[in-house]
Specification:
The protein is about 80% helix and about 0% strand. It is an all-alpha fold. Helix 3 crosses helix 8 and helix 7 packs antiparallel against helix 8.
């Protein structure tokens, strides 16, 4: 569901606004919500965190590629097709939606594992594309756990906002590259 909202700039920006307003409303009623800050230090640590997440992506997708083989590669191509025609503005808006809206709603409400683990599961389910692409839901859930771990380790929402923004932007650029390569090859 959230993957589909990231295709088009206006949808992504509207979703970002709705997620942000919803999170800010809930945060208003919390006794001590996490501070929302974005410092240069947070950006640097977020850039480092995204490297760890991307390494995990490679291991995760590599494991599926090795164990499921051609079936997985076909489903991966199918999932990439979801983003055919996504503009650079769409990539930026979708990444902003991820870094701001999704981080505020899925991780800014508590640092407690009792919140972060169920939130990672809901995060994964909210990124579900279809039953045929179930492994991407599993992967998105794992991503939610990695962002939760980054938040717990650093205590900074700015770190996860940066990491999530960069992760999605790099992912969109990689998908665009793969689609272009498949068109010419």
């Amino acid at each position: 569901m959230l993957f589909h909202l990231k295709l088009y700039p206006l949808r992504a920006l509207f979703a970002c606004l709705i997620l942000t307003l919803l999170a800010l409303t809930v945060r208003h009623f919390l006794p001590s919500p996490l501070p929302i800050r974005l410092t240069i230090h947070d950006v640097k640590i977020g850039a480092l965190a995204v490297c760890v997440v991307i390494l995990s992506d490679g291991l995760f997708h590599g494991l599926f590629w090795l164990t499921i083989g051609d079936w997985y590669r076909g489903r991966h191509r199918e999932s990439c097709e979801t983003y055919r025609g996504q503009s650079l503005l769409g990539m930026l808006a979708g990444s902003l939606m991820a870094g701001v809206g999704e981080e505020l709603i899925f991780r800014s409400l508590s640092l407690e594992w009792g919140f972060l683990i169920p939130s990672a599961i809901v995060f994964g389910l909210a990124h579900h594309l279809s039953r045929r692409l179930w492994f991407f839901t599993v992967w998105a859930t794992w991503q939610g756990m990695l962002f939760a771990i980054a938040l717990r380790v650093t205590g900074s929402l700015g770190v996860t906002m940066t990491a999530h923004f960069l992760h999605d932007l790099l992912g969109f650029l990689l998908i665009a590259f793969l689609l272009r390569r498949s068109d010419t090859g």
